[in-house]
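Listing S7. Sequence submitted for prediction.
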Amino acid sequence: MRMNWTRVILGGIVAGIVSDILGYVVDGVMLGPQWAGMMKALGKAEFSVSQNVAFSVIGLVYGIFMVWLYAAIRPRYGAGPKTAVCAGLAVWAAGTLLPNAWVWAAGLFPTSLTVMTTAAAIVELVVAALAGAAFYKEGAESV
């Protein structure tokens, strides 16, 4: 069966928006003061509007990639939430866990901030994958 690219994009945008909203709540609101302190310690200004827009666009790309991965593994794992969770965890591992492990090993950010953002991203990406996958349908399923 062929991949339904319209649904990949649609579900991906939904997943990206969900991820962006949850990421804003965690990193922008809950951990905002710690991020501001970290940027100051690095000699950088707080995140600008253009940087926040870039983060949102990157979130949309993550969402599209996540729903594409869901669609790609669906034939092997089956349609549904379990497969969406697998896609979300895979994107989390490759896109958050490993880069954050590198940042932590390099000593760029405090361990507590790195652990909190990495742990929160599991929830963000799994919830986003579930939301995006709910919009994905193939072939005769597309109504």
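Caption to Listing S7: primary sequence and predicted structure tokens for the chain studied. The mean pLDDT is 93. The chain is about 80% helix and 0% strand.
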